[in-house]
Amino acid sequence: MEIRSVAVIGAGTMGAGIAQICAQAGWQTNLFDAYPEGLEKGMGNIEAFWDKGIARGKTTPEQKEEWSSNLNPFSDMVAAVRDVDMVIEAVPEILQIKARVFHVLGEETKESCLLATNTSSLSIADIAAASGRPDKVIGMHFFNPVPIMKLLELVKHDLCSEETISLAQSAGDAMGKTTILVKDVPGFATSRLGVVLGNEAIRMLADGVASASDIDTAMRLGYKHPMGPLELSDLVGLDVRRDILNNLAESFQDDSYLPHPLLDALVKEGSLGKKSGQGIYDWSDGNKSDRDSFPM
Ligand SMILES: NC(=O)c1ccc[n+]([C@@H]2O[C@H](COP(=O)([O-])OP(=O)(O)OC[C@H]3O[C@@H](n4cnc5c(N)ncnc54)[C@H](O)[C@@H]3O)[C@@H](O)[C@H]2O)c1
Fold it and tell me: How far is the CA of 92 from the centre of ligand 1 (A)?
């Protein structure tokens, strides 16, 4: 089986990016959002991305025209998913919302349709169960910004069929991504390694090993990481990282995953990272600088 048409459910940060690369892959792409303003914003973001590409000489107007003709906004989910070969869900990270979507997908899509979820932390098996067709369900964990980030983390659960895995791998290739295959365990591969590194860097900061910028420089120049673990934590959001660590500690019944007390204290004082103007770094003027003091 070959993918020719796709529906993307949710037109937010991730859904819009996913729909964009699907349209660029040459697939008929139906983009659905439960809210008219969400759909409008998502379509607008895709258009703006393509226009920026033209302004920078990376995209031609002809390419934009071709890609735009592949992309269709939908305000009716059943109409969006009915005839497509693959659905990728990117609605908010709440199991009840995702389960409702997958229940409808199980009823309304073609028998052969591949059903993917972009969850970053929920159990794929739990989401798959809601569809009534778990063999067709797989995790497709994209990274932000989707059109730029090369990685696609595929997450297989116990009932996922081999056919579903190989179809997802070839879909990833067609979208220009490098795929990795990971078991359905909390934090998959990326989040687990990423948050553990960030938590250890925060422990080092609290222990006075070095300043935040020196710890980040250690990993950038010593290990060729494009960005240090503390800066990355600030960009992702310290509240998001704390929640993932708590989830890992609970799922694995292992306190070594618990967020360091400094991370908890930063979140408690409202220092959530770049989005709040202050986190591990001070971002108040839009650039990062080391803070004079920490809440511990
Ligand atoms: N933002 C990231 O960096 C990132 C990275 C990887 C994975 N994810 C995952 O992707 C998913 C989406 O995240 P996001 O950041 O794009 O969220 P978002 O809030 O930007 O977008 C969610 C969209 O879903 C729409 N929506 C809400 N309920 C819906 C429903 N029932 N049916 C259809 N649309 C609905 C909203 O209107 C909104 O446009 C989450 O599972 C998240 O964990 C996010």
Answer: 4
Task: State which residues form the domain around 178.
Answer: 5-183
- C-alpha–C-alpha distance, residues 64 and 46, integer Å: 10
CB-based pocket (< 6 A), ligand 1:
9-15, 33-35, 38, 90-93, 97, 101, 118-120, 142, 144
Question: Is residue 16 within 8 Å of residue 42, measured between CB atoms?
Answer: yes
The answer as to whether 227 is a domain residue is yes
Q: Smallest Cα–Cα separation from 118: which of 132, 98, 136? A: 98
Q: Whose CA is nearest to atom 3 of ligand 1?
A: 144
State the DSSP H helix or E strand holding residue 169, giving kind and residue range, or none if neither.
helix 162-174
Residue 120 and residue 127: Cα distance in Å, rounded? 12
Same domain, 97 and 143: yes
Query: Strands 137-141 and 151-156, how do they pair?
Result: antiparallel
**283 CA from centroid of ligand 1 (Å):** 26
Cβ-Cβ contacts under 8 Å for 51 (sequence gap 6 or more): 64
Q: Mind listing the pLDDT tens digit for each residue in 233-268?
A: 999 899 989 988 998 999 899 999 999 999 999 999
**Tokens 């794929």 -> residue:** 124
Nearest CA to ligand 1 atom 32: 34
The H or E element that residue 152 is part of is strand 151-156
> Is 90 exceeded by the pLDDT of residue 93?
no
* 244 in the same domain as 179: no
Q: Which of 18, 30, 33, 140 to mutate to test the pocket of ligand 1 (most atoms within 8 A of CB)?
A: 33
Residue 286 forms part of a structural domain:
no
The answer on pLDDT for 1 being more than 90 is no
For residues 271 and 282, give the distance between their C-alpha atoms in angstroms, rounded to a whole number.
9
What is the dihedral sign for C-alpha 155, 156, 160, 165? Answer: positive
Q: Point out the domain boundary residue: 183, 215, 237.
A: 183
